[in-house]
């Protein structure tokens, strides 16, 4: 079983139980966030961890720059995965 499967199933169950609209968005938000973070972490583990550690709090201008660089690296990694998926 892939590492995000349980979160995906829990999110799908939440969507089945909750009527569409604000209640669903609010009620399933934590699962949606956790699932998204899991998928991103699986696709780009090093980049995701760099963003998590470098962007978790404020800091010096150097740390802010490192955070921006980490976010760019994560974005590029996710774009590569998206292109590979679209070429299938």
Characterize the structure shown:
This protein has 88 residues and is mainly α. The chain has helices spanning 5-17, 22-43, 45-54, 61-86. The longest helix is centred in the C-terminal third of the chain and has 26 residues, at 61-86. The mean pLDDT is 93.
The whole-number mean of residue pLDDT values reads: 93
| Proportion of beta-strand residues | under 5%
Give the radius of gyration: 16 Å
Q: Rough shape?
A: globular
* Span between termini: 23 Å
Poorly predicted ranges: none
Helical content stands at: over 70%
Number of strands: 0
- Report on the biggest sheet: none
Total helix count? 4
Order of helices and strands: HHHH
Secondary-structure class: mainly alpha
Tell me the domain tally: 2
Topology:
Elements: H1 5-17, H2 22-43, H3 45-54, H4 61-86
Helix pairs in contact: 1-2, 2-3, 3-4
What labels describe this entry?
single chain, mainly alpha, 81% helix
Short account of what is shown:
It contains 4 helices and no strands. By secondary structure, the protein is mainly alpha-helical. The protein has 2 domains: 43 residues, no CATH class; 43 residues.
């Amino acid at each position: 079983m892939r590492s995000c499967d349980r979160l995906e199933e829990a999110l799908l169950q939440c969507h089945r139980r909750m009527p569409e609209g604000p209640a669903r968005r609010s009620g399933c938000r934590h699962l949606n966030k956790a699932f998204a973070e899991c998928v991103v972490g699986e696709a780009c583990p090093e980049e995701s961890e760099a963003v998590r550690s470098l962007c978790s709090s404020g800091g010096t201008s150097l740390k802010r720059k490192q955070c921006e660089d980490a976010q760019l690296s994560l974005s590029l990694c996710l774009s590569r995965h998206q292109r590979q998926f679209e070429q299938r």
